[in-house]
Prior knowledge:
About 60% of the residues lie in helices and about 0% in strands. It is mainly alpha-helical.
Amino acid sequence: MIRDLQDDARVLLRQLSGDDPEECLRQAQQMRVRLDCLAAGLVGRARLRQVTWSRIGQALTISEDTARHRYTDDYVVRRLRQVSSLRALPASLSALSSGPSRHYSKSSPNDGTIPAEAEATGPAYNTLAPLLSMLARASGIPLQDLARRAQCSPSYLSRILSGQRVPSWAITERLAKTCKADPAIVRKVWETEQLRRRPPRSTVDDSRDIDSLAGVSDRVQAVRKLATALRTLHVRAGQPTPHQICVHSRWRLQAHQVTAILERDEPCGDWPTLVLLLGILGGSPDYFRPLWQAATEHPPESSSPSP
């Protein structure tokens, strides 16, 4: 719920720069409902931890009797069900506390799909929305203009960025290009989100690999595309700081190396260093190697030994 509220707040912030006050009101109403449900859940949590009604009332600035009569066990469970993505919740707070944190079926599928109970129903399970939201914020483009360039309505774009809708690849690609991100990297996240949904909204074409050198005719274009791809990969990974990346690499990388690779327009560092960074950020060496070779003017390795 808290993550959903964070996404709601980001969407509302973008909507404030638009021309649709009714959309802002609807978003605020959605946030109010989530807040009410969150408060109910927190009261239930406090009661399970033996917090008195008197102290709960003081925290909520209501009387003890009001708190006791409003936040009954049945009321708390109903409110949690309103915003829960789980198929069913236990009938009581004690059962909710003693049961597993996520009531998935005991038999998990082994075909790579997620359980039906975990199907995406909002921002909490949408992996594409956080990436598009970060790209939109980083671009600094107003919501209305971003929607116009993506060829969709501002209200639909708001639902995309909050995780309530998964867009088509055409809209996703236009958003990526508008925000100056590498569509090839964004596509991997889009494909993952499509595969998470049952059934997929559209078929993903895996019959060919993505050519990282598509549209690249000289070193200048390769340098520009390599820099864009690395920055997009960094955003997709949640924008970890150079220090966090160094810690994750067990100090095989240094902060100045990470900063230079991610922030400079000219490629720097050798290939093994870049491979180490790609492994931490979740990038594919097969995609980045041709770009790195073209940008640094390293000839592609021959598949046959030299005479």
